Amino acid sequence: MFDQRIVTKALRDLGPLAFLADGEPFAGCLFHEMVISDGRKMSKHLGNVVDPDELVERYGADTVRLAVLYAARPQEDAQLERLRRPARAPLLTQVWEFSQTRIASVGELAATAAGGDEAGTDGEPVRDMTEHLRLKLRQWCEKAVEKTTEDMESLETHSAVRNVMRLFDRIKDFEKRALAREERLGRADGEALLQALATLAQLLGPLAPHVAEELWISFGHDEDGAQAPWPGVSLELAA
To answer: In whole angstroms, what is the distance from residue 198 CA to residue 149 CA?
Structure first.
């Protein structure tokens, strides 16, 4: 990582940018480190630069982007081999397939509930056996938003991707635990599951924007405003 003062000092010494006379016009500047290939840094001078188009064509832009962000901290060198075999390739596919099947199944639950099938045999509502699990899921989502927001603000993208992966695992764990207590997901559990998946899509926004946008539309949002807002950010903070 280079010191931003080196950059602005060079620009100031050139002369034409008089507004730099009083110093750097920004609080900080981060220059990412090198990509290493066969023990050497990639550079045009060495002629060992790898065109990412091949990876994009094979895996998709979002998967390659996620692999780059996950490969290393910006302040650390990234190994090319980690980018040639994007380790996060299955993640986006799994999130997409899991979300689509749950959207469909929760829609069926809503239709069933409208017909009154969620009541017990005596006409009374079935006792809620999974309320504590829904509370836990909400806490997991809140923690994921908090940690991922901190990571994105500090440009710790590796950790941000890891937090998203962890939240997805916990969403699947919630479903597994709920099904262990009931024969099928109740309507409340299904809605909680979709809310958690929508939060996951929001967190994926800056990491895998194309998939996140399509997921956001799948959750019922207008295509004209398909870009998912960052969760938990107030209007004052966003302004």
So the answer is: 16
CA distance 108 to 191: 12
Contact between 186 and 130 (Cβ < 8 Å): yes
Identify the residue whose tokens are 């979300």: 99
* Size (the chain), residues: 239
Most distant CA pair in the chain: distance in Å?
86
Q: Which of 2, 34, 9 is nearest to 24 (CA)?
A: 9
Q: List own/partner pairs for 163-167 with CB under 8 A and 24 or more apart.
A: 163/203, 164/200, 164/203, 164/204, 164/207, 165/88, 165/91, 167/140, 167/141, 167/196, 167/199, 167/200, 167/203
pLDDT tens, residue by residue, 171-188: 999 999 999 987 788 889
Lowest model confidence (mean pLDDT) among 65-69, 108-112, 171-175: 108-112
What residues have CB less than 8 Å from 152, skipping those under 6 apart? Answer: 160, 206
Tell me the C-alpha distance between 80 and 46, whole Å: 15
Q: What is the pLDDT of residues 126-170, one digit of tens each?
A: 556 789 999 999 999 999 999 999 999 988 988 999 999 999 999
Residue 15 pLDDT: 62
- Domain boundaries along the sequence of the chain: 4-84, 89-238
Give domain 89-238's CATH architecture: Orthogonal Bundle (1.10)
Q: How many whole angstroms separate alpha carbon 215 and alpha carbon 102?
A: 12
The reported pTM is 0.75
